[in-house]
Design brief:
Elements (H helix, E strand, L loop, with lengths): L9 H15 L15 H6 L1 H5 L8 E14 L2 E8 L2 E8 H4 L1 H8 L8 E10 L5 E12 L9 E4 L5 E4 L5 H6 L1 H7 L3 H21 L3 E2 L5 E2 L10 E5 L4 E5 L4 H9 L4 E9 L11 E10 L3 H20 L3 E4 L2 E4 L6 E3 H9 L8 H10 L10 H12 L8 E7 L15 E9 L2 E8 L4 H16 L10 H8 L5 E7 H8 L19
Parallel strand pairs: 3-5, 8-12, 16-17
Antiparallel strand pairs: 1-2, 1-4, 2-3, 4-5, 6-7, 9-11, 10-11, 12-13, 13-20, 14-15, 17-18, 18-19, 19-20
EC number: 6.1.1.6
Main location: cytoplasm
Pfam family, one: tRNA_anti-codon
Length: 509
């Protein structure tokens, strides 16, 4: 054994020594390719066909994956192999694969977690377990760190206890690659998330809307109220911002003549982390000309009903202790009405100071930088939003809260906006889009005043966007749907980190 490296654990030192021994045997521990004909799932789903004529007439299969368990029994052994399709048992004999391959490479130099390839035929053991009888064995990848392997131990009291399980939440988020290896059920949530996005994309494509891409690096950030991440472009010596939304660019495309455009976008907001917030998140934004927010409500509830049916075969989805039903239509409740029902306070027509006092009476923390819109948002977020479990449209927001939404056609002081709330959190935000350039400039200037007063999340004036809508934008409905939060609901996940492969974390140590 070579001299131990101080930074390596005993297990790592042993594995590194085995790596060197493989090379001494002229075995490449990291070969370039391997011909895989079947996954474990393929074999288990087609076992009857594959077993027919075993062994002489049986179809030969070639599989590759990680060694997860081993039972060494002299001249023959059993082990399990895990691949992308699941786990399957392998039977291996010295007489089939060769003395050196079996006695040295397999028994002495192979560890749990190593990648190997097997060629052979499928059969069933006396206990009825579908198994591959190995005729050829090939080493495909040496692991230098041990894979966490849970062990079940029966106590004197007859209870079964599990040790060494990779269950610590923080470790699982930090080392998602290990989490996926030893907790394969974790994959299910991410597979469902992908299918969810695919079904939404199909729904929009079938209606003729065009998927597009817009800039992530933007000279002026806009489309939402949030603090941005800032960077610098050396080539032009200018500051740029990671987008907080893609709304204003998609509207430029509506100005340019597209009837319907959408984008699944990575957006970035320099805000806190929580169960429901990650600084980097995904949303889909859709803008459709000639439509309004009433049309968009119907569109969204039908699309999410479609998603639930695709993923679960039902409009009902179990989320924690709740059964959430996405069957359309969803309730539609004006914002002031929802607040009054929960608090007894009618905020319509109230001044900023009156609303500030109501917030204080409700023991809601506010500060001097908050304008009327932010105060109302805080009251709604504290008193109403957490109680909305079934999907609900909250409609008709105060104009102060919505600088990009069109004024309500019949209700003074309000705009045509809705948020979709589900499981106590917003999952979508939508407007009848503001297309009056004079009104839009006034709204931007009011945001600039709020910003000067200390509101770091207020919007900035985007002169190019104003120039775009001065060329004329048709009546338009727009929506942004939070993919991460919707995925949490569709996969019954308690934290946004459970639906992100690599969530943002504090630095280790």
């Amino acid at each position: 054994m070579t001299k131990a490296e101080p930074s390596l654990s005993e297990q790592q030192q042993i594995r590194k020594s085995k790596l060197e021994q493989l090379r001494e045997l002229d075995i490449n521990p990291y070969p370039y390719e391997y011909d895989v004909t079947h996954t474990s799932k393929d074999i288990l789903e087609n076992e009857e066909t594959l077993i027919a004529g075993e062994p002489e007439g049986a179809e030969r299969v070639s599989v590759a994956g990680r060694v997860m368990t081993r039972r060494i029994m002299g001249k023959a052994s059993f082990f399990t192999l895990q691949d992308s399709g699941g786990i399957i048992q392998i039977y291996i004999r010295r007489d089939d694969v060769g003395t050196e391959e079996y006695n040295t490479v397999f028994k002495k130099l192979t560890d749990i977690g190593d990648f190997i390839g097997i060629r052979g035929f499928v059969f069933k053991t006396r206990t009825g377990e579908t198994t591959i009888h190995a005729e050829e064995f090939e080493f495909l990848g040496k692991t230098l760190r041990p894979i966490p392997t849970p062990k079940e131990v029966e106590t004197e009291e007859g209870e079964t206890k599990t040790f060494d399980a990779f269950s610590d939440k923080e470790m699982r988020y930090r080392q998602r690659y290990v989490d996926l290896i030893v907790n394969p059920d974790v994959k299910d949530a991410f597979i469902k998330r992908t299918h969810m996005v695919q079904s939404m994309r199909e729904f929009m494509n079938e209606r003729g809307y065009l998927e597009v891409e817009t800039p992530i690096l933007q000279p002026i950030y806009g489309g939402a109220s949030a603090r941005p991440f800032k960077t610098h472009l050396n080539a032009l010596d200018i500051d740029l911002y990671l987008r907080i939304a893609n709304e204003l660019y998609l509207k430029r495309l509506i100005v340019g003549g597209f009837d319907g455009v959408y984008e699944f976008s990575k957006d970035f907001r320099n805000e806190g982390l929580s169960r429901f917030h990650n600084p980097e998140f995904t949303q889909v934004e859709l803008y459709v000309a000639w439509k309004d927010y009433n049309w968009m409500m119907s569109f969204m509830e039908n699309m999410i009903e479609h998603v639930a049916l695709k993923l679960h075969g039902s409009t009902s989805v179990t989320v924690g202790e709740h059964e959430i039903d996405f069957k359309a239509p969803w309730p539609r409740i004006p914002m002031y009405e929802a607040i009054e029902k929960e608090t007894g306070h009618d905020l319509s027509g109230k001044s900023e100071s009156e609303i500030r006092n109501i917030a204080k009476d409700l023991h809601i923390e506010v500060d001097k930088s908050m304008g009327k819109g932010k105060l109302i948002d805080e009251i709604f977020g504290e008193t109403v939003e957490p109680k909305l479990i079934q999907p609900t449209f909250i409609t008709d927001y105060p104009v102060e809260m919505s600088p990009l939404a069109k004024k309500h056609r019949s209700k003074e002081g309000l705009v045509e906006r809705f948020e979709a709330i589900c499981n106590g959190k917003e999952i979508a935000n939508a407007f009848t889009e503001l297309n009056d350039p004079v009104d839009q400039r006034e709204r931007f200037e009011e945001q600039a005043r709020l910003r000067a007063g200390g509101d770091e999340e207020a919007m900035t004036v985007d002169e190019d966007f104003l120039r775009a809508i001065e060329y004329g934008m048709p009546p338009t409905a727009g929506i942004g749907i939070g993919i991460d939060r919707l995925a949490m609901i569709m996969t019954d996940s308690d934290s946004i980190r459970d639906v992100l492969f690599f969530p943002q974390m504090k630095p280790e140590g």
